[in-house]
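User: Predict structure, ligand zinc ion.
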Amino acid sequence: MPAPAPTRILGIETSCDETAAAVVARDADGRGTVLSNVVRAQWDQHRAFGGVVPELAARAHVECLDDIVRDAMSDAQMNFADLDGIAVTAGPGLIGGLMVGVMTAEVIARVHTRPLLAINHLEAHALTVGLSEGLKPPYLLLLVSGGHTQLLAVHDVGRYTRLGSTIDDALGEAFDKTAKLLGLCAPGGPAVERAALSGKPGRFPLPMPMHGRPEPNFSFSGLKNAIRLTATAAAPLSDQDIADLCAEFQLAVAGSVADRVRKAFPLAEAAFGTDAPRHLVVAGGVAANQALCAALTDVARAAGYQIHVPPIALCGDNGAMVAWAGAERLARGMIDAPGIVARARWPLDADAKAVLGAGRLGAKA
Ligand code: KG4
Ligand code: ZN
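Assistant: Predicted complex:
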């Protein structure tokens, strides 16, 4: 008997300042293939304001989403009738942008009578390694993006336990604010990483937040303050000062996050059982940072964990991760009725105690 045809899903992402659409295929064995992946960043619209302006973001999504979807379909050489489902980020994020994506997906799904899949943006990041390398839960997840910093036990699609969270700023936000303070161009994370390449830590010692604390929580607001005070004291800053400060910041961040992840390993073993395979997944925009991943590789190796990071093109916001989360949900019959409601807040672990900083808007400024 011939193998069943792969399911093919269109994914739409508009939760913050990337307008994105993609088509992925999922075969009967659960393997994924990216058929197209189109992303348009909006930094040019927001740069003058020093951060993402929600109203401008929503308008920019309205202006270009139809074209982005059309490009994704034509790159995949498909018509809407060839799709098995339409997946769309329904939260968390900036509500105006989310509504643009949700309305577009609803129209395509209704006109072509295809199943609709409302995707949690954080779940899309969480499951991306299933698309990029076929890794399935259970695994320990470090989710580091512009609006979120969390450690989660990923039991299965739709089943998450939060083990730790930032108590103030998200890690991506700390990168972006550091870049802004040092006069680097947006987007901040890649700019800080690039500057750090020609810098050396040692001249401007910074604190390593939460280091040694027993719970695997994070905090970056004190570090942000420390870098502001250090930069002010050393002003005017030369290019070498900026590079050295960026290297120092990355060292502090990588050391802090690696220490927090180490504290989460026993909690993951308690959640999955000591015999479960030991996988650490790093996802979200900040997972693109090489210094962070190098530090995490060392702690993972020391604890007998294998580390998994999506390719850079799938770390930041994109439609392929949304399509893939949709494919995984469709395979389990987790289809949503028309009339999806966009949600600014939508924690992955609804039972977790509220922590300031967890489940925040995807504000990258
Ligand atoms: O996941 P993402 O694209 O959007 C949200 O869901 O927030 O993450 C964006 C964040 C931004 O704060 C950006 O500066 C950061 O990821 N980022 C990086 C790097 N690339 C993106 N941070 C550090 N190093 C990078 N190479
Ligand atoms: Zn994201």
